[in-house]
Design a protein that fits this description.
This protein is mostly helical. The protein is about 40% helix and about 10% strand. It has four helices and two strands; from the N terminus they run E-H-H-H-E-H. The protein has a two-stranded antiparallel ribbon with strand order 1-2. Helix 1 packs across helix 3. About 10% of the residues are buried. This is Putative acetyltransferase YhhY. GO terms for molecular function: transferase activity.
Length: about 70
């Protein structure tokens, strides 16, 4: 069994998060506008005042970030 790594999202994860949240099966249940820009994701990850505490499952990044 593979080990699971859960960590805070980092700026380099913005593109993979953008791709993942652009999938219709995912964004329809998020209560957010669809297709946020790459800059919006980068800002959300790097600006602590936005109140976003994004946790990232490393295997998700490999699955969606390719």
């Amino acid at each position: 069994m593979k080990s699971v790594v859960v960590r805070h999202a980092e700026p380099g994860d913005a593109e993979a998060l953008q791709k993942m949240y652009a999938h219709p099966a995912l964004y329809r249940d998020t209560l957010q506008l669809p297709h946020p820009s790459l800059k919006a994701w980068h800002d959300r990850i790097t600006d602590p005042d936005r109140g976003a505490d994004i946790w990232w499952h490393a295997s998700t990044m490999r699955l969606w970030g390719s």
